[in-house]
Amino acid sequence: MALAEDKHAQIIDAAVAEFRERGFSGVSMDRVSARAQVSKRTVYNHFENKEALFRAILDIMASQANRSFEITYDPARPIQPQLIELGWAEGRLLIDPDFMKLARMVVGETMRDPDLAAEMNDKMARIAVFEEFIGDAARAGALAIDDVARAAEQFLGLIKATGFWPVIFSGELLDEAQMTRLIEDSVSVFLNSYLKGKG
Question: H/E element holding 140?
Fold first, then answer.
């Protein structure tokens, strides 16, 4: 069992490197097996085809992203620093070069395949975490929000508009200082609209 798990991990690591370097269309099971230093039969014993291998990587990518979002609203603390922490749960991913290189490749493939895009969207639970956090803050009276889902999309969108989509097209990541400014500015804009007692 341990040997099989080791082989599985070797194949995944090799496939991630291949997909990052070559994109989906440039990857072959032959290349993955050579890079993983296992036989082609071993690769097929674990993954029936390239698409199955790609989906396994999507699962890993989604798990990596979703693990960073184990954050909940605390009514005993001020809202502003908590929103900054929530923003950084996203921001840490957006300044990670390995994650974003894979994200660029994944976005390209999901644009080609609507079913894959829907599958990936279901696996990436980040917006649900934003909704839960913002909804809890609103119910606690820290925020004045009628449409929690819309507000969560707005907050995440403020960060991704500068920190994600330009990177997808240019490949130029924000550094930590730039992400800090982006998150703080996004929180400021968000609170200017939704902080209880504003306006």
Answer: none
DSSP secondary structure code for residue 77 in this structure: S
Task: Report the predicted TM-score, pTM, of the whole model to 2 decimal places.
Answer: 0.81
CATH superfamily of 57-194: Tetracycline Repressor, domain 2 (1.10.357.10)
Other C-beta atoms lying within 10 Å of the C-beta of residue 45: 14
Retrieve residue 66's tokens.
């979703």
For residue 143, the cross-strand partners are 195
Q: Please state the length of the chain.
A: 199
One-letter amino acid identity for 106? V
Task: Please state, in angstroms and rounded to a whole number, the distance separating the CA atoms of residues 146 and 150.
Answer: 9
Residue with tokens 């800090």: 180
In the chain, where the domains are located = 2-48, 57-194
Pick the CATH number of 2-48 from 3.90.1150.10, 3.40.50.10540, 1.10.10.60, 3.40.640.10: 1.10.10.60
Which residue bears the tokens 């995440």? 156
pLDDT, tens only, 81-94: 999 999 999 999 99
| Separation CA 80–CA 93 (nearest Å) | 21
Query: 47 is written with which tokens?
Result: 């993954």
CA distance linking residue 133 with residue 63, whole number of Å: 19
